[in-house]
Amino acid sequence: MGKINSKHIFIVYLIGLVNFVVVKFFGDIQRVIDRVVSNKAQKVMGYWNLELIPFRTISSSIDSYIRVGMVPSSINLIANIVVFVPMGYLITFVVRRPSFIKTLLISFASILGIEIIQFVTYLGSADIDDVLLNLIGSVMGYAVYMIYIVLQNKLNKGIETNHGTEK
After folding, report:
1. What is the H or E stretch that residue 126 is in?
2. How far is CA 79 from CA 17, 47, 120, in A?
3. CA dihedral (147, 95, 84, 138) positive or negative
4. 141: burial class by Cβ within 10 Å (0-12, 13-18, 19+)?
5. Three-state secondary structure call for residue 1
6. Are 144 and 88 in contact (CB under 8 A)?
7. What pTM was computed for the model?
8. Which residues of the chain register pLDDT less than 50?
9. Predicted confidence (pLDDT) per residue in 78-105, tens digit
């Protein structure tokens, strides 16, 4: 059996991400079908599964949290960030010469792809706030990577210093 590497982990993460964010299949295919049917029916009634006004969903979720406490919309707000933290971290291990810009661009393209898939397939709604929140999560993942690199460099310098003084 071959060695599991970061590319394999990234692929498994992406598959899980698409299921969790787009398909939302958790054992009951009928729920997925019902969601598609409902979204199609809403479109026929004039309600598109699309939100292009920035911060509308975010402010609504924050308002709900202030008025009622932790509700599904505020949990969704937090989840939109947390679920994308691994993306920002893992991208750095699958690209050559990782950088903030590369991580941001790959994350943005992936997130935009997810939003388009949700819109086209009626599996969910496309929301500009999701893109913003997902990018925040990805940037946080990149920050974790940078902390990892700094700590690794300090550890390596400490090991080099110890080896240099031992005789």
Report:
1. strand 126-127
2. 12, 24, 22
3. positive
4. buried
5. coil
6. yes
7. 0.89
8. 1, 167
9. 999 999 999 999 999 999 999 999 999 9
